[in-house]
Design a protein that fits this description.
Number of strands: 14
CATH superfamily: Apc35880, domain 1
Distance between the termini: 33 Å
Number of domains: 1
Bound molecules: protoporphyrin IX containing FE
Order of helices and strands: HEHEHEEEHEHEHHHEEEEEHEEH
Radius of gyration: 19 Å
Helix content: 25-40%
Length: 315
């Protein structure tokens, strides 16, 4: 069993809820480090207060607010604390017409609960506090669709680890004590091309994902193509599978919609490896065929410190 002295942020380890809000902030230029570090300490002290007061309205809503910081933001916000060892910016990946862009994002806030109205209240208060130092450049509301399906109509999240395997996959153990119990998060907002997707036969869609559509059963290895999404995204080192935790949610409306990819791992290298396997064609010209139907619009990496780390700022 994994025993860490620091507690993780609850939203990092828990399953996705019915509603989620993903807020991306960029630090204001021109503010000096003293001001930034004092202001973030004030905001972090209030996060816990906001969470408790909104949760009181409906305990069944299970509201959590999780926060993370980019490699650019860390030294400006926490100048006296060393950077998490593997915190790095997201690097653009490109092959042919397929692109995973690297986009702006210094502070990422993920609000999860079973009520969109409570998420809104939390988001409003978080924005009010953070806007003294950062601009909210993207605010996406995600939601549970059918039985945890993406809008391409396949169940998402089935192969996520659970229990101790999840803790092992998600939380940092190999770093100074300050950063243990934290996690690396990679986010990407995807837009679907549903017209193109829905023009495909179900059999082809099942090959693209590597599972059956209706019953969500994994295809046998002898029929699953090398370019299936669940073949290309799976990370193995020396034949041992290395898991990540995906908390993806669909987002959007009839006009524009897709998947907000939310991937946690104990090192950003796991998700970087998965992304490379997906986008770069291998020696047979095979890449992840899901990428023929979905387009990544954003890409960023954050470190989500432990709850113990955040607790040092409590009043
Ligand atoms: C539009 C974007 C995406 C969609 C719609 C999507 C959808 C799915 C679906 C339906 C599955 C099969 C069920 C499951 O095990 O969850 C799956 C599996 C998986 N996906 Fe994605 N995914 C997307 C992006 C990504 C990205 C960007 C990554 C990695 C960086 C990723 C990593 C994985 C992994 C590791 C699995 C499990 C593979 C296995 O062990 O079987 N996915 N995804």
């Amino acid at each position: 069993m994994t025993v860490l002295s620091n507690l993780a942020q609850p939203g990092v380890l828990s399953n996705p809820t019915t509603h989620a809000e993903y807020m991306t902030f960029v630090l204001e230029q021109r503010l000096d480090t003293n001001h930034l570090s004092a202001q973030i300490a004030h905001c972090l002290a209030k996060l816990d207060v906001i969470t408790k007061s909104i949760n009181q309205k409906d305990l069944d809503a299970s509201l959590t607010i999780s926060i993370g910081f980019s490699a650019n933001a860390w030294p400006q916000l926490f100048p006296s604390m060393p950077m998490p060892a593997q915190l790095q910016p997201f690097t653009e990946m490109r092959d042919g017409t397929r692109v995973f862009p690297a986009t702006a994002g210094d502070i990422f806030v993920m609000i999860k609960s079973n009520r969109i109205d409570l998420n809104f209240q939390a988001a409003k208060l978080v924005m009010r506090d953070l806007q003294a130092i950062a601009e909210l450049i993207e605010d996406i509301q995600g939601y549970k669709y059918l039985d945890n399906r993406d809008m391409i109509d396949f169940v998402d999240g089935t192969e996520n680890p659970s229990g101790d395997e999840r803790v092992e996959a998600v939380l940092v153990q190999q770093d100074i004590e300050l950063h243990q119990g934290g996690s690396y998060l990679t986010t990407q907002r995807y837009v679907d091309n549903l017209d193109k997707w829905e023009a495909q036969h179900t059999e082809y869609q099942e090959q693209v994902i590597g599972r059956t559509k209706m019953d969500n059963v994994e295809l046998d290895d002898d029929v699953k193509p090398a370019w299936a999404h669940n073949a290309k995204s799976k990370v193995e080192i020396d034949d041992v599978e290395i898991k990540m935790l995906r908390q993806n949610r669909p987002w959007g409306n009839a006009k524009e919609h897709g998947t907000f990819f939310v991937g946690f791992a104990s090192t950003p290298e796991i998700i970087n490896t998965s992304l490379k396997q997906m986008i770069f064609a291998d020696d047979n010209g095979d890449y992840d065929r899901l990428l023929d139907f979905v387009d990544a619009k954003t890409g960023a990496i954050y470190f989500m410190p432990s709850a113990t780390f955040l607790g040092q700022f409590d009043d």
